[in-house]
Amino acid sequence: MQVQMEKASKECGNCKKKTVIKSYCDVCKQSFCETCTQKHNTDEETKQHLHASPDRITTQGSDNQLCQNVRGEYQATHHKHTPITVPGDDKGTACTLGMVILPDGRLIVIDNRHKSLKLFNSDRYTYAFRRNFTHEPRGIAAIADKEIAITFADKHAVRMFRVQQGSFEDTHKFKVDEKPFSISYSEGHEKTLAIEVGEGKFGAIIITNLSGDVLKEISGYTRSFGKFTGNTIRLAHDHSKQLFYIANLQNECVNCVDYDGVIVWNVQVVSPRGIHHHDNTLFIASKSENKVYQMKTDLGGGEVPILYNLVNGKDSIIEPRFLAYSVQTKILAVEVAGNIIHTYNCLRKN
Prior knowledge:
The protein is mostly beta strands. The protein contains 1 helix and 32 strands. The longest helix is centred in the N-terminal third of the chain and has 9 residues, at 34-42.
């Protein structure tokens, strides 16, 4: 079983480096550093070691220190529906840049190459209809009920749509000073959007209300939480806690950043792509490792972020990128291998 602990520097039982020990496994009878803890918790041969662990125990070698066991709270298993081919009624390759699942279970995908939104029915995720644009849609966020927000970088615009039975109905739009890319929605004491805007020294994260009024701007120019290029950041946020989560593709990590731009914590993730935040848990896709992880975000004092597998090892994933999750339907959608979307039943463990 796997437990979380903080100790003075000693030798890691796996990599043999002298460093800060973050966990002890009483199946392997070894202590591990942070990197090896993550590997231990995600490798097929050892990830099950943590499942027998009670919530709080005292372990051998911990100097009677009370340790907190941190476990993955969700488990995703392959859904019975057939995979979705994103091109829909288009011929040739699509270019998925994001997707969301509505509360009624319907899936909406951005196909950037064909400058369109495409909707797939919830029954067997068959292609239903589309909305074409003259400019490329870049990011998507589900707001509430049947409403979505889309960013259009070339137009410096964010547009809102209500999803009807056979169409996307325009409801509202607003302009931003710099090009908008990744976008996230969150409800705290008010409904907000977090938007990645600008490139290079003009890069920033802005927090707006649904009317487009800027409530906060966090400059990225002198920060180390991500490089602003329009293609190397994925974004989620929690407005009630005034935190946002950035998948930093260039530095291969996920950063938790407060509204003042201070990095609260970070965790190394190989080739991070899509992220989704829900109920104090972050879902993360690792493209080159062919895995989807979960990790706890509501960390207590002395805790460090630790990755756990979300999807069963028997449900193979190939190069996952974008993620979408529906609280209402408990369905997780994962874009894999460029043009295919797999769906999973994603439930909290008992």
